[in-house]
């Protein structure tokens, strides 16, 4: 073997060693995370319009590699990488949380374009304002404001706070237990629609902190994850569907109390299908105008599988023979919003789906988004 060949082999071995060390170092910087919602989409980019490359299950573990605004770059068990909305994955180690929350501790605190006291001021924040910390430079934090505007603020004016995900209690008298087990000591009980902070997830149980400060475990059957900024709308099939659903529910609720009038489609009055078509159109979705035609739009879903944003259809005639005569928008928790023609209402109201008048008049449901 010639001298030149030996030198080449040595050089290659050195390069491989350096490369291996870089891989190990990079792996050490990743953070283990646990998926805390069902059917979470992994996307090719940090955007809800990016293509879906995989779907994660509740309780699945991933490696968090990086973060960008509201997204985590993760590595899957097969080695592939993709992006997930960061409210759907919880880092397992607090000291490696890649996206922290901060509370402003002074009034009139300047947010600047650059981490420099002489940089232009782009906004002023008052005490108690909540911001997301997305970067750090010496004595400055880079923050995200209103999910759009980025800027820099002196670290002296920020108190770090845990960036816990919000969960909503979906049952009555739900127990918070000391340990993640059905025989665990009961520390407290919560009613329907109480909100908790989710710290982590383990083997079917959420580790939560109640608003009272009580920390413990609630079984997954009694918690729905709520996306930040979604006005209480729960996680449904994916992070793609959730923003659209949230928008539909928010728009619909804006018209509570608006009068019912047959043949009208808003915004000063509605009939039932005029209301649903107007709400979906306002949210950017085109659907049919009549309730019978809407009952053929989208895909059919069972009553047991209803999600917020689904259309629900009823037979409100005296015979109750399955004809479609009324439609509303399901908003979760067994309730739907609709333009009611009933004598006691005649306006946009929220009604119970499984109780009272509408319980036995339900015919079908459709999912449009």
TrEMBL record:
A molecular function GO annotation: cysteine-type peptidase activity
SUPFAM superfamilies in the record: Cysteine proteinases
Residues making up the signal peptide according to the UniProt record: 1-27
Highest taxon above the source species: Bacteria
GO BP term, example: proteolysis
InterPro entries, per database record: NLP_P60_dom (IPR000064), Papain-like_cys_pep_sf (IPR038765), Peptidase_C40 (IPR051202), SH3-like_bac-type (IPR003646)
Annotated TM spans: none
UniProt keyword Acyltransferase, yes or no: no
Matches recorded under Gene3D superfamilies: endopeptidase domain like (from Nostoc punctiforme), SH3 Domains
Keyword Protease: yes
Residue stretches making up the SH3b domain: 30-93, 99-162, 164-227
Alphabetically ordered keywords of this record: Hydrolase, Protease, Signal, Thiol protease
UniProt domain NlpC/P60: residue ranges: 242-369
Protein family per UniProt: Belongs to the peptidase C40 family.
Protein name: Cell wall-associated NlpC family hydrolase
